Amino acid sequence: MTYSHPNRSQATKTRTRLGDDVNPQSGLCVVCQEDCAGYCEVAQSSMRGPELLYPKPYGHMTAAAQKEYPVDYSHVNIMGTAVGAHGVAADSDAAIFPNADVSTTLGHDNGISLDFPIVVPGLGSTDVARRHWEGLAVGCAISGIMLTIGENVVGMDQEAVIENGEIKHAPELARRVELYRKWARGKGAIVMQENVEDNRLGALEFAVKQLGVEAVELKWGQGAKDIGGEVKIDDMGKARMLKERGYLVLPDPRDEHVEREFGRSFNEFERHSRIGMVTRDGFHDRVQQLRDAGAKYVFLKTGAYRPADLARAVKFASEAKLDLLTIDGAGGGTGMSPWGMMNEWGVPTFYLQSLAYEYAQRLDQKGEHVPALAMAGGFSMEDHLFKALAMGAPYFKLAGLGRAALTATMISRNIGLLLDEGRLPKHILEHGQQREQVFVYYDELMEEYEDLGAVPDGAIGVYTYIARLKQGLRQLMTGSRKFGLEHLSRGDLACLTREAAEISGIPYVTEVDSDEVDEILGV
Known about the structure:
about 525 residues; alpha/beta; three-stranded antiparallel sheet
């Protein structure tokens, strides 16, 4: 069987004339006719070229891979039990799911307290991240979870003042930091990330010294793509500014022919970031520079690279005694990434976490420091969180939830706009026509944060989504009789396929508890 769906996807707004009657390898119709109007990616590419590399419409959506991997977290089930309790008294009145503790701490001094074991990974310079930052930042802050400002935010800001390669003023970065900080209640953290161009500008040093950011993150990559950050630009002046700031901009906005054709044959430029070049010495030097600059916590985020690169990330993070290493598996979400790359490169999340657990365990057995780990790449529901945390126990402390959190922000904001316009869709009207009827936590949040003003609709959506995840995770933990995240273990899972068991090292479902079964049966 084939796991891919080449040549047609809603992501690229393409399809085939014959629907699913295609060659499974090429994705071309089994009969390709010369009089076809041209619906598929090959046909559209013959007219629009590289534009078809990317999901659309840019700036108004996020995307994630469509490829069906041979093994994923659905091949694992959560094991419950009827016996005992961990973290509370083994008493039916104590062992109730509201008593399950889903809070955690992070950092070398446990100085970062989180109400829920979530980090929203880097959301950087894409239009969709910028436009929805208010809802996302406020929602994460009031939910007590960690939020990461992604790459290129300063470099993309037309209002930023950069003189002789040094940042003097960065209003968009300041806005992002202050929105989170204003609404935070002592839980969570705002994190600042850097890539190659950010490093050259000294963006992290600026964030630490001028904006008081305590947690910074080096970025090796992400799960959605194997290259640097990308965005599209529909303004000639901005494209030229980015070219002057050292970015790769295609086509070259300084070219006279390009200037003539802009608005005629094409309407968008592409801005690309450079790929990093990791070395052990360079990595450790940069970590020390950031600590010398005043960074209290230093993180690393790596992508779905080959196993040797994952080993480097785990080992280097161990040597540097980082506070967190986030690992992002293939298929992860993005605001812009080549569609073919997103589907066909990298180590998928389940496989990547299995390797990361093995590497962390090997270091642990040698007595070496194991940093706190976070797993990201396609998670959206409470069972995903339980499985990722249990499968990685005791090393994985957090799950990364980027695209899903942004979805909660975007949709709730849109519903708020439709409500104001009196155009609520039928399935929403079932709840009512007022905000307090549509958003179940509306009144509670408005009362709690009355001193700060109205909570944005997007933030209400994030908070409400996280509230669902909190209760769902508590219920799953209660079924396994685990009333604190520190009690989760690989023993809480069982594999439904032999292949999943082989990859992860978690037992096949009929082989779970075999020794205890023998003891109970007296055989």
